[in-house]
Every structure is written in structure tokens, then in C-alpha cells.
Design a protein that fits this description.
cell membrane, single chain, mainly alpha, elongated, 261 residues
Length: 261
């Protein structure tokens, strides 16, 4: 069997393993999924009218349209925290040590985690999107091509954050530390353009919100779904995704392939 065939076969096996774990122990994924859903309902029904007036909208529906794209990307950040915890559990419970002694492709363990996490992120995004549609979100101006581009951006963003989360899981001594190390993946969307435009923030804070991966990705997704101008955000978002994916991949593989101490 060629190296490529071996890698595909073993990666598929590891993917099935991680999906079975997610199905048998869904509490972590559900808990992380509840965060963006609760924020969506909170900001729409408690702050919706006030926030809509603040961004120049007419009513609550304008703020729903503004809010949902940001929360879709926040959902990806929340889901990948579960990846960091899962990887950390594998490292600390001894299963990785057993895998190292078996005749399997070494990289398949990480690939299984990454692909499984991306699939979970897509499912989570669909669920949060369904809640958004149920409370009034509409994307009538988006073309089929824009929908495909939006889906591609979500998958690319999920892949990038997942590789970063895998690295965080590998350096964590236990699941609690992995969860804490991955908290920036939830914190960064809170200080981005998810809830209010960057221009509405204090001047000293605007660079913090603007020069981070979530804001250009949110603005790009918002433009694709609502038919608004994307400007330079599209290229910046793709650059962030590719940069984080490469960084996370190299970091994770180097840490995973290092001899255990």
C-alpha cells in the first residue's frame, strides 16, 4: 500500500473515531454551542431595538441581519475549544502513546481531529444559522455564487482555527488547561465587529478590533450574505485563514512529532 493510501485509510479511521466520541459524549459540543445561541437571543430580544438604532438601522430586523454573520464565526471559535480539550485528553490518557507503537500513519491522528472538528463546526454553524432564520434573519440579496463563497470562507476559517486549537491541546497538561488556553477563540469575537461596527468603538480601541482575524472574516461574510461592500476585507480574511492554518499545522505537527519527555 502506498504512503498516500495508508494516510487516507488511517485518517478515515481516526475521523470515525472522533465522530463516535462526539456522538457518545455530546455535552461538551452542546455547551459550547449554547454560547452563541444565547448571545444571539440576548442581543436580539433584549438589546435589539437599541442596538439597531445605534448602528443606524430602522428596527430589530436590521440588527438581526448585522448580528448573525458575526455569531456564525463565533460559533466556529466556540466549537474548536472542544477540539483542544479532545486532543489534550488523547495526549494525557495514554492513547497517543499506544498509537505511536502501532503501524499507522503518524499524521492521521491529527488529521482525524481536524476533519472531525471542521465537520462539527459546519453542523454547529447550520444550527445557529437555523436559529437566526427562525427569529428573522434573511439573506435575500445573496447570489448562489456568494452563498458558495460564504460556505467556503466558513470552512476555511474553521480549518484555520482548528489547527490552532490542536496546537493548544497538545501543549496543555490537562483538559482544563486546554479549555483555558483556547479561550481567546471565544474572546476575540467579543472585541470584533460582531456586535457593533468598529467605527462606533472608542478611537483607542478600534485598532484592537480591526487588526485581528475575526473582524475581516465577519465583514466578508456579512458582505456575502447581505450583498454589501466587502472591500479589502476579503483578501485580508483569506490571508488570516491561510496564515493561521499554516502556523497551526506546523506548530501542531512539530509538537506531536517531538519525542515524549
Amino acid at each position: 500500500m502506498s504512503n498516500l493510501s495508508l494516510a487516507v485509510r488511517d485518517s478515515s479511521t481516526m475521523l470515525r473515531r472522533n465522530l463516535l466520541h462526539a456522538r457518545r459524549y455530546p455535552s461538551l459540543t452542546l455547551n459550547l454551542l449554547l454560547t452563541p445561541i444565547m448571545l444571539l437571543l440576548l442581543f436580539v430580544y433584549i438589546f435589539g431595538d437599541t442596538m439597531s438604532a445605534g448602528i443606524g438601522g430602522g428596527d430589530r430586523s436590521d440588527y438581526i441581519a448585522y448580528l448573525v454573520p458575526g455569531l456564525l464565526l463565533m460559533t466556529i471559535g466556540s466549537t474548536t475549544i472542544g477540539t483542544a480539550v479532545s486532543v489534550s485528553n488523547d495526549m494525557t490518557e495514554g492513547i497517543i502513546a499506544r498509537f505511536r507503537t502501532m503501524a499507522i500513519h503518524r499524521g492521521s491522528v491529527l488529521v482525524g481531529h481536524v476533519v472531525g472538528s471542521v465537520l462539527q463546526s459546519v453542523v454547529s454553524v447550520v444550527l445557529v444559522g437555523a436559529v437566526g432564520v427562525a427569529i428573522g434573519f434573511r439573506s435575500t440579496d445573496a447570489t448562489v455564487l456568494e452563498w458558495l463563497a460564504a460556505f467556503g470562507l466558513l470552512v476555511l476559517f474553521a480549518t484555520a482555527l482548528t489547527w490552532i486549537a490542536v496546537g493548544m491541546g497538545l501543549i496543555s497538561p490537562n483538559a482544563e488547561a486546554a479549555s483555558n488556553n483556547a479561550m481567546p477563540l471565544i474572546f476575540l469575537p467579543l472585541i470584533s465587529s460582531t456586535f457593533v461596527p468598529v467605527d462606533a468603538m472608542p478611537g483607542w480601541f478600534q485598532p484592537i478590533a480591526e487588526y485581528q482575524p475575526f473582524t475581516p472574516a465577519i465583514e466578508t461574510l456579512r458582505g456575502l450574505l447581505l450583498g454589501t461592500e466587502i472591500g479589502h476585507n476579503g483578501w485580508i480574511a483569506v490571508a488570516w485563514c491561510l496564515g493561521l492554518a499554516v502556523l497551526g499545522y506546523r506548530w501542531s505537527t512539530a509538537k506531536f512529532n517531538a519525542d515524549p519527555k
